[in-house]
Amino acid sequence: MDGLLLDRVPGLPDRLRIDVGQQRAVVMPAAVDRRRLADLVTGAEDPPDGAVVKIGGAVRLVPAEGGLLPHLTVLDNVIHGHTVAHPVTKQAAKEQSLVKAGRCGLADVLDRYPHEITPGRRRLAGVARALGAYPRVILLEDANGLPTWGSLLRIEHNPDLSSAAILLITTSSARTAGFLDAE
User: In this structure, are residues 63 and 42 in contact, taking their beta carbons and an 8 Å threshold?
Assistant: First the structure.
């Protein structure tokens, strides 16, 4: 399995499969169900008896607000994603982070702090940070009042994003615009 497979999980679609290079959106209006799905995918919760949860590699969660550390610049947040996941030199992490941040459209805000950039840019910085771990699955949390993920991500222009299965968990089908499939 290279990506994500959820099968026979109560409260979820009967079968949810996302292969590396694909993106899917799941609409779950109840906050408790969204949290449960995120916990199942990240491994924070064990699946119930009879359910199947298979993940083909590292998973990274990008919280709705981006999940950045407020005391670090955007670049330092992205570097942190590299150094936590892989033992690399600081220089190598910086070089890789500059590439990933640039592909996420962040080259002009790298020296700013999270509170100094827009919510959309914070979300993209969270994605760039997650990409530093070279995940096979990226889980995107969504929230009303923020730019939609579909309006922010340009998967076709960012080869790093095509190396992962991307799952968006949202509250409304209207917020799935820009994603190929919605459950």
Answer: no
**CATH number of the domain where residue 168 is located:** 3.40.50.300
* Domains contained in the chain, number: 1
3-state SS, residue 169: strand
86-144 pLDDT tens trace? 778 889 889 999 999 999 999 999 999 999 999 999 999 999 999 988 999 999 999 99
pTM for this model (two decimals): 0.91
Length of the chain: 183
Domain span at residue 58 reads 3-182
Residue 134 neighbours by CB distance under 10 Å? 16
Residue 34 is encoded by which pair of tokens?
Answer: 């969204």
For residue 165, pLDDT over 70 is answered with yes
Report residue 30's pLDDT band, with 50, 70 and 90 as the boundaries.
confident
For 16, the token pair is: 């949810």
Whole-angstrom CA distances from 112 to 71, 78, 107, 145 are 10, 12, 11, 23
3-state DSSP assignment of residue 182: strand
